[in-house]
Amino acid sequence: MGSSIDSLPLEERARHYRECALEAFKLAEAARTPELKRTYLQVATGWHTMALELEPEGIRVSAVSPGFTKTALNNFMGTETVEQGAREAVRVALLGPDAPTGTFTRWEGETIPW
What we know:
This protein is mainly alpha-helical.
């Protein structure tokens, strides 16, 4: 049996939630059917909720969209390079401690509604 996520230190839980939300959003963007897209967005929303729960602890968790990036996930059919897809993640990671938490953004600086 795996250990419960709740037993992890707070910073590790935040990292886990952020990674799960990002992966779910990537899957939603690549989804070819509305049903699959909806499923992934529901998962991502759950991780977003976790991010909001961590806010009082001073831990920021934000999700970013890498866009339609060429990866194995989409059989390298994407239109952006991995470097282009990483831009927003790097930008958000470099924001200061007063930056918002629980946001979902794409490179153009646009906030994506949950």
